[in-house]
Fold:
Amino acid sequence: MTLDPPAARVLQAAEQSDLPLLETLSPEAARLQYEKGCAMVGGRPPQMFAVRDIAAPGPLGDIGLRVYTPRDPAGEAMPLLIYIHGGGYVIGSLDSHDIPCRHLASHGDCMVISVDYRMAPEYPYPKPVEDCWAAVNWIVEQAEALGVRRDRIAIGGDSAGGNLATVTCLKARAEGGPDFIYQLLIYPGTDRTRSQPSHSELAEGYRLTRSLLDWFMNHYFSGEPADANDPYSSPLQADDLSGLPPALVVSAGYDPLRDEDIAYYEKLRANGNAAEHLHYPGMIHGFINMPGVLDVAGECLEACGARLRQVFAQAD
Structure:
């Protein structure tokens, strides 16, 4: 396993910068720094036919949504990917993940609706879960008005957003719907215990450090107590993962979440689900936000979009 040279250059540039570590900042300041960083490495945004911001009602007020339409639908309903952004439940936004969502819409030939859920520490666990659940149910209920095919809805996300996507699928199974046709899980957080070997092996030097993970987790779980084995906080710990939508799990070789991602993929298959694994051995956590400096980021988003397109077409 060798770190890809462009990824090494990203890490070197971050180390040589005079920017403070995110975990030394207030959440507000960390969010601003993260947004600026994403803008610097995102590259050129793919053109869309339409991008609009709307809102869904939620338990704590309106939840912002951004709707991406890649081409003129010509009056026909389109397949949809509901996307939940990463950022450790503390940072990240519709803007930080705008470019990845555009790539997924373009390559997937589908609408994408990105969810601006409330984040910790202002809204700790389980409030982000509740926001995502409310937003997803509203989107499905409004499918016809949104120009979406109700029988062609996938859900996905990266990192913390990948966790929230897995949890939403577990809740949907428990509640008898909504029915998702697919899960797109890009280096999802699946194990709150952080006991997999990659957490020790890659604890320092690869962007998502042990101290940054501590900062994220301490903020996210600063509210109601949650058992580390609660599947809605730690999906890998679920006793039963059967009956879930087909999944694509993406992992990165230099990501401390690597082993829990692979373990989740393997457990999905062991529980009888259709699942595929796409691994990028030389990449670091968060790489899909960097298509402006990492060619592999664009390749990954293209591969994910192509898989979505295939899934939507096969459902006919």
Summary: The chain has one domain: 5-314.
